[in-house]
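Annex B. Sample input.
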Amino acid sequence: MKKTARLRELLNSKDILVMPGGFSPVVGIIAERVGYQCLYMSGFGTAAFKMGMPDIGLMTMSEALENAKNMARAVSIPLISDADTGYGNALNIKRTVAEFEAAGVAGIQIEDQVWPKRCGHMEGKELISAEEMVQKIKSACDAKEDKDFVIIARTDANTVLGFAEAIRRSNMYAQAGADVIFFESPLSLAELEKIPRLVQAPVMVNMSEGAKTPLLTNVELQELGYKIALWPSSTTWAAAKAIENVLTELLAKGTTAGSLENMIAFHEFNKLLRLEDYVGLAAKYK
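Annex B, continued. Sample output.
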């Protein structure tokens, strides 16, 4: 089954789709191995680990696309990629969709911020008009060659223009053809409870630790009516903390011996990367 068709199947199921965010192919491989059915390429995590930069619109489409292509190739589960604002206007969106679709991605998320954008939980965001975003969504839908390729429309209006405007935009974007609505930065449990009832489309919610939105469990989110529970930055925070811990120990003690139980062993890591398969291929073509 094509990854796009598989993603559609997951979206049409009765269960919530729990989707971890990742920033590298290795994160994707691990996510698939432990049992996740879908993966998200985090723009925040990619900018951090690929560029060493914050998520404020400094990463170009080609840099994001390269990472998305490598992540999609490394796993057999569908990958949804953060595509920021789509990297331009309604015309640019056509190329964005074509490039990510050709890269093997099963869907993209685009947002209604101006460029350069900012992480949805940062201050100082600015938005394009709802009408311009509608045209970008229509362009994205027209551009896809695979009917199952998923377009997720994100609105950042809640923390800029207020809850009512964010709901209005969400329904405009759904009517324009978006498959899923990403309502960014609900600020309270009361807002989280209202959104799925007011938005006339499947809704994705962002659970980002330490950010603006209260953290709920996946079960709680399903009970509220959300279709996708996105945990976009958990692996980013965890990887950064693990790296800091082991390097601190190495500097202080001159060895990493005390951290071995927190590492994947050399041979296990090679197994994770399917080294034996590559060795077998190399032997086949000698």
